[in-house]
Amino acid sequence: MNEEISKILKMVQDGKITADKAQELIESLKDKNTELVKSSEEKRSDDIMDKMLKIKVNSHEGDNVNVKLPVKFIKIMLKTVGKIPISDSVKGMENIDLNLISEAIDNGLSGKIVDVKSADGDIVEVSIE
Coiled-coil ranges per the record (predicted)? Predict the structure, then answer.
């Protein structure tokens, strides 16, 4: 954008356009840049909402959990109830940080968020795919 502004200022200097016209052009450049940023943020937000949250827990005691929930559902649950409707009575689930998951969703992150393998043999994986 700085290059475009420099060109506009050069046109004013050369007498090709008026200062008022230059101001109008610069403002339209700023508006266009703001629209592009908003558009990319909206696209990222839409993309993440079409994904699934996957939680996999395999404890050494034999507890196995495989949860697959739409991110849209999770966002609604976090807004209304304040938590994800997943039992934390299964060994390993109590260590899953819902705030971390919420932040990951809000920031449009995808891929593996949590990957823990304990010395006891417990495995906890959380991903957004």
Answer: 12-42
In the chain, domain spans: 2-48, 51-128
**Do the beta carbons of residue 83 and residue 75 sit within 8 Å?**
no
d(C-alpha 67, C-alpha 69), whole Å? 6
Cβ atoms of residues 129 and 102 within 8 Å: no
Q: Which two tokens stand for residue 62?
A: 């034999």
Which tokens sit at 11?
């046109």
- Whether the CB-CB separation of 126 and 96 falls below 8 Å is answered with yes
For the entire predicted model, the pTM comes to 0.52
* Tens digits of residue pLDDT in 73-90: 877 777 777 666 665 565
The amino acid at 65 = V
12-35 b/e (C-beta count within 10 Å ≥ 16 → b): beeeebeeeebeebeeeeeeeeee
